[in-house]
């Protein structure tokens, strides 16, 4: 058996070059972990959607809320429904409060006795029992009851003053809380938390001074929220006697028909002020969040591609290093197929090893990312993901996926080198290096790659122009990224080549600053000027050499460069997107928030308005009413159909698109009208016709996602509230369609951050049709904004407004920005990871390359150039590579941002916004890239420089 | 509702030892209240031991009783006020059981044969449980912050089946309503209160007599529905020392306990779908128990057996047995005349012995099903009067699979005696 010794010879390579093996694995593993982790993350989220809307781990299949407006539901309604025999209802108060650290804490508050929350809790405790062991240590703190039950949260502690919050481990970690720690609600509402003593010494202000204990429970659909009792929730959120909604829960083992009949019965029993709707289904949830998940998938795939480039590099070098060995083996009569098989075995083993390591690490990664994703989902779509531990839910699936992805990865990475290896069988292999190296080094190959890149970019532009959409958007992004990866390094090499030529052609380079980029280490100008005098003869040749040598290096790190450029482009793109969005939202907020103080009255407002108008500081009031309406519109398709094929076609009942939306009243006030930023119709909008009730403004979402356009006609109707028809308008407005009121779209406005469709009509038009709808919001305009601090306490004292119902402009802006900044945490985390992976790839490539530079460096060193100088040259070389690559990647990244904004976000969120270039971020990124590349160069050189020059020359082959 | 409770039970077991303990013990207190002096030896608690016990035998420690109002002897009960609730005491219940006979004109009951073909039983109980001791800062109108938690059980025993339902609700927000005059005990849509027919006669000039009759029981569990009216002999029987049931030999602790043992009941029962779903007319005898206290069982006691009988001669007999770990069971009872006069019985004057066991499947404290023998047949005797009866369950499967499971069902005296009653068994 000759395979044994041969295998030993082939594989011993890695014993001499463990670093190659390490890098190969790192490339593969990081790629697989990213793609698999993101997949797992998305799967977990989608599994969560499958369970539909959940409340404390239970399925809610219906939601009772106010019929016409977004006002809270009276608790009395809940009580009378229950007393009428409707069980399976849960009263829910949910919202966000601010703690003393200024954090916004989302809570959901229910009556735990209304419906058991815990069917699954028991199971969880069964499985997690041992892992909960740690919490036993905390049990001593409480004293008093020394039962061994103490470590398990007791529902009566949740229900009764001084109350508790219960949260998942993940959310508590996010908040930096341990089981048993306390949260301290900020503001005046804090004092209200506990209004009865809980035993002997506990005082009234327990909640304020001692905070509220937070207990950790197994995750049950709480996700980003903490659970507490409705009593505390109402106090914290200023909702005494009010509910946000009533959830209709599903009974265990309830049949579909039972469910339906129960639903119908309940719907029929509701007073007209309430409506029962089906909760958001799996379909709705996954549709809403689709673009975000695609986004994450794309990032994962990007990291995988980067990982493949790294692996490719490592495999390439490993084959090249072993070429002499393979030649020797062949001359010894070992058949090429045997070596080929051994290499295959090598890669299969590597794929298995990758799987083994990547599978658990990807679970770990997704476990970390899940809360970040949950935060994003909560902020963007008000979708709550349960923060279940992915560890407990992971299956063989993960391993199989990891195996597939790593096999595919190594196959892609090894395909080229492998093909090259097979090909060299016929032609005798030279000792000077593989044909592969020749090929990748050759200008022709680079040109070809660059041409391919150009083609890809052009194709991307073509698709973007021809078929804009969510999925094509991702194709465009992929093409753009790879195109940039292919083009930029070649551009760079070409630049260096021309520079080198220039240097060779003219020996008097002294005054030519363009020849100096490679010698410009950012922080060393003094050294340079000092060096000028002393080494004036040696200097320029070294520079010249460094440019040429860098060109040589670049040709060998081309693949790693592609990976780096990919990551840089993605980084520029995502940074630009997030920054543009942020800037736009800030500008929009500044324009939108015209009032100095905003009030959310919960009851009759007539006296409040009279009082406000009488205050000396108040210059004006903007009021807002709101009603939920159903929009009907003839769909474009139906209209076209009716027009083109109208011979006897029934035009009277065209297909109608129906959707529900919030209709707001817009104050008849110049200031309020100007506060609406129009996306379309800004020029031609006729405010007089709008005020006459003919025009309606629609949010951008309705335009982009639901296809409503300027000039379209919409019919609005509202359930439970019959619109009051003005005598003059009755005929024209009714329009004959389900007694809806007809409006013409006269403007499209930006409505950032709102995942739901919205419309606006003039306030008097609103009151004319829906006189029974009260004021839901008041904006107070002050003569001087400094009066905020004097007026707000007066309103609070006079009308008992809590902090939740009253906010000044600046705080509102702060809240909005804080929420915004939390939103893209998951995206940015992934983005950074990708950049790190690619930097790692470049470091690997350079490291391997330096093994090959020893001789050259030795020769240079022997010519009297100091090590220190060589160091600096290297740093300069690679810092400039990093910086210049970033600059070259900029246009592609900006293009990417354009695609992200105009192709993806438009279809994902229904918001569009202009590209806004964050130059400072670009400079930071360029600096970061320069630092990373020069750092990798230094690391690679360090080992080398421990050797003597003689050794470098003699040992290098 | 029906599935709900299943989840609830498991939930509460997993989640909430405190509720579990206190509510379970509520059941036990029905008997403990009348527990006489004695058996103090084993009252010292080992909490770990208690936790190992199944639900109803878990015992609260003494310090958790502190702060609550305590029952004391010598405080005369006063009606109708005491028909209402006593919120400062830890626990309280309104406990109605009734033996019903389906009217002969019912299709379902026309079959010739055993008497049991027409025998039905119903139970309705509202338990009140105070979760925190009263505090001075407590507001009258505490809303959700109320410490009062209520649990209601409704059960129907048919000649062959048994059905039950339960509701949990918090006080303070209008889900539960209890008032003495006019008498109302309501939890959500389950109503036990002064019949509407009586409202006509009720006005401000009517002197308060303490007579709460007629009372209507109207509830719909989704599975079965009851619409019954209590009337007739509303005599009140005060157990123990004029309604104070001492439970400690030296300390004056115990519970307030009275019964209305001679009530007539009639109305309709909507049968579950498994039994054809029809509505039947029924009539019979009912027994209302009322008790409130802040005291708990000792861990010496492993459970109790309680029985109420409507004797053929018109008297009522209440008997119970507290099972001691050492086998020295404590037997106690009340013999009640139609006028409500009570003769206290003890182990010398009352014979109360199990004679028949049946295997009953019931969920264990951990929610797992377990089959155990339960005494469904009893020998009941009054030696001084040379009277004795063999009493057997209508059928063995009258297990209450509620969050805190126990056995409670209709019983019949063996022929020729016609007496009927209710049996409660806990701790098996």
From TrEMBL, chain A:
Pfam family, one: FtsX
Compartments, record wording: Cell membrane
InterPro entries: ABC3_permease_C, Membrane_comp_ABC_pdt
Biased composition (Acidic residues): 120-136
Domain spans labelled ABC3 transporter permease C-terminal: 832-944
Region (Disordered): 119-154, 508-527
Membrane topology: Multi-pass membrane protein
Keywords: Cell membrane, Membrane, Transmembrane, Transmembrane helix
Residue spans crossing the bilayer: 21-41, 296-317, 338-365, 398-419, 449-467, 473-492, 559-578, 829-849, 870-901, 921-941
Major site of localization recorded for this protein: membrane
Domain of life: Bacteria
Name of the molecule in the record: FtsX-like permease family protein
Species for this entry: Corallincola platygyrae
């Amino acid at each position: 058996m000759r395979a044994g010794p041969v295998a030993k010879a082939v594989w011993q390579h890695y014993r001499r070059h463990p670093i190659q093996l390490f890098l190969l694995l790192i490339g593969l593993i990081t790629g697989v972990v990213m793609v698999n982790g993101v997949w797992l993350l998305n799967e977990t989220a989608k599994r969560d959607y499958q369970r539909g809307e959940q409340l404390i781990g239970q399925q809610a299949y219906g939601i009772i809320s106010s019929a016409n407006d977004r006002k809270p539901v009276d608790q009395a309604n809940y009580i009378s429904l229950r007393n009428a025999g409707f069980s399976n209802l849960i009263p829910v108060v949910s919202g966000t409060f601010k703690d003393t650290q200024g954090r916004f804490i989302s809570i959901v508050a229910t009556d735990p006795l209304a419906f058991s929350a815990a069917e699954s809790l028991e199971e969880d405790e069964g499985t997690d029992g041992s892992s909960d062991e740690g919490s036993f240590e905390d049990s001593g703190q409480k004293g008093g009851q020394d039962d061994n039950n103490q470590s398990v949260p007791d529902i009566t502690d949740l229900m009764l003053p001084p109350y508790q919050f219960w949260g998942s481990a993940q959310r508590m970690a996010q908040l930096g809380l341990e089981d048993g720690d306390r949260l301290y609600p900020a503001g005046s509402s804090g004092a209200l938390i506990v209004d009865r003593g809980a035993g002997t010494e506990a005082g009234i202000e327990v909640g304020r001074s001692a905070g509220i204990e937070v207990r950790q429970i197994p995750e049950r659909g709480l996700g980003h929220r903490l659970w507490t009792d409705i009593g505390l929730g109402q106090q914290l959120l200023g909702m005494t006697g009010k509910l946000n909604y009533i959830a209709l829960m599903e009974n265990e083992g309830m049949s579909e028909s039972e469910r339906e009949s129960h639903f119908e019965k309940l719907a029929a029993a509701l007073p007209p002020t309430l409506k029962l709707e089906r909760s958001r289904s799996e379909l709705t949830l996954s549709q809403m969040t689709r673009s975000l998940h695609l986004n994450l998938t794309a990032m994962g795939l990007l990291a995988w591609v980067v990982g493949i480039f790294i692996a490719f590099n490592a495999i390439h070098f490993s084959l090249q290093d072993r070429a002499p060995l393979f030649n020797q083996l062949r001359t010894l009569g070992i058949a090429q197929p045997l070596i080929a098989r051994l290499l295959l075995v090598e890669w299969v083993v590597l794929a298995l090893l990758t799987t083994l390591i990547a599978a658990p690490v990807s679970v770990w990664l997704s476990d970390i990312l899940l809360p970040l994703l949950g935060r994003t989902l909560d902020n963007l779509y008000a979708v709550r993901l349960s923060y279940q531990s992915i560890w407990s839910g992971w299956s063989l699936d993960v391993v199989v996926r990891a195996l597939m992805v790593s096999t595919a990865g190594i196959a892609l990475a090894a395909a080229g080198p492998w093909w090259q290896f097979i090909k060299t069988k016929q032609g005798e292999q030279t000792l000077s290096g593989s044909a592969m190296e020749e090929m990748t080094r050759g200008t022709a190959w680079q040109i070809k790659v660059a041409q391919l890149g150009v083609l890809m970019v052009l194709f991307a532009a073509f698709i973007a122009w021809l078929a804009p959409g969510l999925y094509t958007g991702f194709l465009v992004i992929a093409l753009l990224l790879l195109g940039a990866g292919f083009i930029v390094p070649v551009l760079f090499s070409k630049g260096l080549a021309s520079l080198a030529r220039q240097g060779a052609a003219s020996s008097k380079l002294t005054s030519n600053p363009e020849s100096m980029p490679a010698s410009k280490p950012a922080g060393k100008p003094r050294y340079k000027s000092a060096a000028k005098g002393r080494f004036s003869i040696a200097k320029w040749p070294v520079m010249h050499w460094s440019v040429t040598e860098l060109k040589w290096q670049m040709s060998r790190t081309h693949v790693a460069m592609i990976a780096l450029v990919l990551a840089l482009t993605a980084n520029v793109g995502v940074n630009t997107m997030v920054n543009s969005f942020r800037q736009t939202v800030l500008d929009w907020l500044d324009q939108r928030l015209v009032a100095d103080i905003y009030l959310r009255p919960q009851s009759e407002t007539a006296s409040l308005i009279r009082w406000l108008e009488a205050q000396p500081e108040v210059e004006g009031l903007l009021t807002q009413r709101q009603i939920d309406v159903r929009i009907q519109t003839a769909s474009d398709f139906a209209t076209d159909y009716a027009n083109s094929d109208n011979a006897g076609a029934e035009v009277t009942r065209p297909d109608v698109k129906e959707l529900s939306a919030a209709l707001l009243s817009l104050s008849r006030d110049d200031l309020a009208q100007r506060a609406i930023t129009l996306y379309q119709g800004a020029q031609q909008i006729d405010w007089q016709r709008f005020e006459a009730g003919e025009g309606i403004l629609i949010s951008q979402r309705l335009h982009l996602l639901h296809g409503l356009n300027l000039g379209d006609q919409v019919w609005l109707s509202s359930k439970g509230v019959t619109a009051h028809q003005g005598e003059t308008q009755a005929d024209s407005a009714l329009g004959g369609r389900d007694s809806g009121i007809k409006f013409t779209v006269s403007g499209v406005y930006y409505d950032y951050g709102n995942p739901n469709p919205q419309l606006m009509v003039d306030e008097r038009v609103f009151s004319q049709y829906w006189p029974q709808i009260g004021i839901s919001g008041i904006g107070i305009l002050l003569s001087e904004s400094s009066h905020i601090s004097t007026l707000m306490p007066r309103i609070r004292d006079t009308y008992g407004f809590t902090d939740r119902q009253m906010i000044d402009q600046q705080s509102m802006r702060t809240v909005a920005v804080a929420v915004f900044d939390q939103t893209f945490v998951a995206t940015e985390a992934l983005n950074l990871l990708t950049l790190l992976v690619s930097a790692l790839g470049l470091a690997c490539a350079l490291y391997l390359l330096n093994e090959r530079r020893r001789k050259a460096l030795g020769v240079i060193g022997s010519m009297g150039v100091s090590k220190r100088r060589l160091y600096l040259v290297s740093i300069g070389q690679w810092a400039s590579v990093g910086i210049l690559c970033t600059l070259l990647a900029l246009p592609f990244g900006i293009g990417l941002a354009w695609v992200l904004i105009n192709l993806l976000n438009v279809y994902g969120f229904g918001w569009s916004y202009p590209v806004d270039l964050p130059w400072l971020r670009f400079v930071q990124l360029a600096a970061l890239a320069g630092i990373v590349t020069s750092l990798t160069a230094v690391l690679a050189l360090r080992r080398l420089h421990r050797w003597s020059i003689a050794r470098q020359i003699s040992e290098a082959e | 509702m029906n599935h709900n409770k299943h989840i609830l039970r498991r939930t509460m077991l997993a989640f909430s030892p405190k509720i579990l303990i206190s509510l379970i013990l509520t059941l036990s207190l029905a008997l403990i209240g009348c527990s006489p002096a004695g058996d103090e030896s084993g009252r010292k608690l080992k909490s770990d031991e208690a936790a190992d016990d199944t639900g109803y035998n878990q015992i609260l420690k003494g310090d958790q009783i502190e702060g609550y109002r305590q029952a004391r002897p010598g405080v005369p009960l006063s009606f109708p006020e005491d028909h209402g609730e006593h919120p400062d005491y830890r626990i309280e219940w309104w406990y109605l059981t009734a033996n019903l006979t389906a009217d002969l004109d019912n299709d379902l009951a026309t079959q010739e044969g055993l008497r049991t073909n027409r025998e039905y039983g119903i139970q309705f109980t509202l338990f009140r449980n105070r979760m925190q001791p009263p505090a001075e800062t407590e507001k009258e109108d505490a809303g959700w912050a109320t410490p009062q938690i209520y649990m209601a059980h409704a059960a129907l025993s048919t000649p062959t089946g048994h059905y039950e339902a339960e509701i949990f609700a918090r006080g303070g927000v209008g889900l539960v309503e209890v008032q003495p005059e006019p008498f109302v005990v309501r939890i959500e849509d389950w109503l036990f209160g002064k019949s509407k027919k009586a409202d006509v006669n009720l006005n401000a000039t009517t002197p308060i007599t303490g007579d709460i009759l007629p009372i209507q029981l109207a509830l719909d569990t989704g599975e079965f529905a009851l619409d019954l009216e209590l009337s007739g002999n509303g005599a009140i029987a005060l157990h123990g020392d004029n309604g104070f049931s001492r439970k400690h030999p030296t300390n004056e602790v115990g519970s307030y306990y009275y019964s209305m043992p001679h009530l007539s009941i009639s109305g309709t029962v909507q049968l579950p779908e498994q039994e054809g779903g029809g509505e039947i007319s029924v009539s019979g005898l009912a027994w209302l128990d009322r008790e409130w206290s802040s005291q708990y069982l000792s861990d010496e006691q492993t459970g109790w057996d309680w029985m109420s009988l409507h004797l053929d001669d018109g008297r009522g007999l209440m008997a119970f047995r507290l099972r001691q770990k050492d086998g020295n069971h404590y037997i106690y009872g009340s013999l009640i005349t139609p006028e409500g006069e009570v003769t206290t019985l003890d182990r010398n004057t009352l014979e109360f012995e199990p004679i028949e066991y049946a295997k009953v499947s019931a969920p264990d404290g951990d929610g797992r099903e377990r089959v155990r023998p339960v005494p469904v047949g009893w020998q009941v005797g009054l030696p001084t009067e040379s009277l004795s009866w063999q009493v057997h369950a209508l059928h063995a499967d009258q297990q209450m699979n509620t969050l805190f499971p126990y056995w409670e069902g209709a019983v019949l005296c063996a022929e020729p005696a016609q007496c009927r009653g209710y049996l409660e068994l806990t701790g098996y």
